[in-house]
Amino acid sequence: MSKDKSAKIATPQAVRGTQDMLGDFADRFQHVVDRFEHVRRLYGYKRIEVPVIEPTAVFARSLGETTDVVSKEMYSFEDRGGEGVTLRPEFTAGIARAYITNGWQQFAPLKVATHGPLFRYERPQKGRYRQFHQLDAETIGSDSPLADAELLVFADQLLKELGVGEGVTLTLNTLGDAESRDAWRTALVEHFMGHRGDLSEDSLARLDKNPLRILDSKDPKDRPIADSAPDIDAYLTNEAQDFFAAVTAGLDAAGVAWERNARLVRGLDYYRHTAFEFVTDRLGAQGTVIGGGRYDGLIETLGGPATPAVGWAAGIERLAMLLDADVIDNRLDAVIAVEDDGQLALAMKALTALRGSGFSTEIVASGSPRKRFDKAAKIPAHALISIGTRDGESYINIRGDSERTIAAKAIVQAL
C-alpha cells in the first residue's frame, strides 16, 4: 500500500509546548546567548558542557523524590540496556555529578557557566515550554559570601547588557546555616501542624517531607497560614547573620539594588544561606527571569565530599521576550544587485571582500537582470550596492549613509 507523502506529520502530545524559531525571535534568542557568553568571560567563568541525558538517580537524588519536578515533570524512561535515564530538567545536578566523577575538586573554587535545552513535562504557557532553554552559572568549592555576591553582580550586569534591567527586581533572602535552618524548620512544622485541618491537600503532603515549600504555596486556602508563619530571622545564628550581611554589603558596594523577601525559600535540605530571584511583572504570572541560591549540601547528597556551592539559572526565552523591539538590528550590512551577468565576477569579488572584512552581505544574481535591483531593495540592509555596465564600462553604485555603509563603500571602491 502506497503512503500519502502529502499527509501532515502529527504532533505527538509529548512535544506540544515545544517551539520552532525563525527570524526575529531566533535572533533575540541568540542575542541573549551572545551577551551571556560575553559577560561570563568578563567574570572568569569557564565554559562547561554536560550531557542532555543522565541517569535518573542524578535528578531524583538532587531534586528530591517528592518534588513536582521528579514526581510529575521529568521525561524519564528505560534505555535499551534497561537503565533508567532522564532528559535533564535542570543543569545544576548534572554539573555537580560531573564535578564528582571527573575529579574536578582539584580546580576548586571552580567557576563554570553553560547554556542549552532542558525538558519538563508541564502545562505550556507564556514563556514556559516543555523543551526550554536556560543560561546557567555556578561557583563550586567556595564558602565565601563574596562568591554569592559575584554571581548576583554577574546576573545584574547581564540584565543591564540586555537592556532589560529596568522593571526587574532582585529579591533576596537567607535560609541560614544548617543550625538555623533546622531550628526554623522545627518551628514551621509546629506552626503548620496547628493548622493542619485548614491546609490544602498539596501542603499536607509537603508537611512531612518539605514543609518550607508551604510558604510559597499559591493556594488561597494556604496563604493566611503561610503568611502568619514565623520568619527565619528569629532563628539565625550569628554566623548566618554575618554571612547574609557580607552578601548584601557586596551588592551595595557594587551598586546592585535588592529587596528582602523573607518568604523566599528553597525546600530541599541541602540549600543554605542565600536564596534569590530576579522578578518582573512584564511576563504575567511567570515573573522570575533568574533564580538561584547556595546549595552547600548537594554534592554530598550525590555521593561526593562536603562541598560548598552557589549558582543561578535564567530562562533564555523569557529574557528574549523582555528585549526591546529595537535591540536587534536584523538588517544586513549590504546587499548586492548584479544588474548585468557580465559583471558577475566583479560582484563576486565585492561579495568576498565585504564578507572577508566582517560585513554581512547577500547577493541577488538570479532571475531577470532588470528586476534584480527591485528585488535587492526589498531585502533589509544598510547599504544597497548595484553592479552593472554603463557605456561599455563596469560601474558600482552604493546607496546608504550609515557608518557601516561608508566603510563598505571604501572596501568596494578599492577593488
Keywords summarizing the entry:
BirA Bifunctional Protein, domain 2; 15 strands; four-stranded mixed β-sheet; alpha/beta; 2 domains; 415 residues; eight-stranded mixed β-sheet; Rossmann fold
Describe it.
The chain is an alpha/beta fold and 415 residues long. It has two domains: 15-177 and 237-322, Bira Bifunctional Protein, Domain 2 (BirA Bifunctional Protein, domain 2, 2-Layer Sandwich), CATH 3.30.930.10; 332-413, Rossmann fold (3-Layer(aba) Sandwich), CATH 3.40.50. Helix content is 37%, strand content 22%. It has 14 helices and 15 strands. It has helices spanning 24-42, 56-63, 68-73, 92-101, 145-162, 178-193, 201-209, 223-227, 238-254, 298-301, 316-322, 344-356, 369-377, 403-413, and strands at residues 46-47, 53-55, 76-78, 84-87, 110-119, 131-140, 168-174, 259-260, 272-280, 288-294, 309-315, 332-338, 361-364, 381-390, 393-399. The strands form three sheets. Strands 1-5-6-11-10-9-7-8 form an eight-stranded mixed beta sheet. Helix 1 crosses helix 11 (316-322). The longest helix is centred in the N-terminal third of the chain and has 19 residues, at 24-42. It starts with 23 loop residues before the first helix and ends with a helix.
* Morphology: elongated
Q: Say what the CATH topology of the largest domain is.
A: BirA Bifunctional Protein, domain 2
Q: Helix-strand pattern, N to C?
A: HEEHHEEHEEHEHHHHEEEHEHEHEHEEH
Low-confidence residue ranges: none
Quickly give the structural class.
Answer: alpha/beta
- Which CATH-level-2 architecture of the largest domain? 2-Layer Sandwich
* Sheet with most strands: 8 strands, mixed
CATH homology group of the largest domain: Bira Bifunctional Protein, Domain 2
Domain count: the total is 2
Distance between the termini: 61 Å
CATH uppermost class of the largest domain: Alpha Beta
Query: pLDDT average, as an integer?
Result: 88
The fraction of residues assigned to DSSP E strands is 15-25%
Q: Which bin fits the share of residues in helices?
A: 25-40%
Radius of gyration: 27 Å
Count of extended strands: 15
Number of helices: 14
Read across the widest sheet, the strand sequence of neighbours is 1-5-6-11-10-9-7-8
